[in-house]
Amino acid sequence: MHIYIMKTLLILCFVFQSVVATTTTLCSCQQLTDCRTSYISKVESCANSCKASSNYTIDPVAALTCATSEITDECLNTVKGDFCASNPSTMIDADATYAVKNNNVAQRLVQRRFINAINGSSTNLVTETLNTLTDTGNREFVSCFMDCLGSINPLQCSTDTGCQFKRPPTVTLLHALPLCRSIQSDKRENVCACLKGLNVT
Q1: I need a labelling partner for 42 at 20 to 30 A (CA). Which of 12, 52, 107, 180 fits?
Q2: Is the keyword Signal assigned to this protein (predicted)?
Q3: What are phi and psi of 198, to 5 degrees?
C-alpha cells in the first residue's frame, strides 16, 4: 500500500514538473507599450547627449524626432489580442510562444516576417534616418549615437523581463502583413517629408 502511494506521488510530482516546465509568462500588452516608450526615451536621450558632444551640419535631434514621432503600434494592434496579454502574470504554454522554435517552415517564415514588421517599423525608421544623417556629413554624431543606443531592438526590454510573446495564428498574420507593410510605407513617406522640412535631401 505504501509503495503504491509513493509511486502515485512520484508520478504526480513528475506531471507537475512537466507542466511547470512547459509554461511561461505571456508578456502583457502594457509591457509592450512601456517597451516602446522606453525605446523612444532612450533614442531621445542618446540623441541629446551626442548632439552636445558632436559636430553636425543639421540638427540631429530634430531629424530623429521625425522618426520617433512615427513609431506607433498600429501594425501590432491588428493582432494585439493574439500577441500579448491584457492582464499581467498570464501564463501560457511555452510551445505557443516565440521562445520555442516552430518546426513548420512555412509558418515560421510568416511568423518571422510579422516580428520583423512590428520590430522593423521602429528600427527601420531610425536606421534610415541615421543613414541620411551620415550621408549629410554627420558621421561623428551617428557614431556616438550608435555607441550610446547599442543594439536597437524595441521588443528586447519585454523579453528581458522573462516574459514571451505568443505566436498569433498564421492565417491571422497573413491578413495583417499587407496592412503592416502599407503602414510602414506611409510612415517612411512621413519621415522623408519631415526631413525635407529640415532641408535634408
Answers
A1: 180
A2: yes
A3: -95, 10
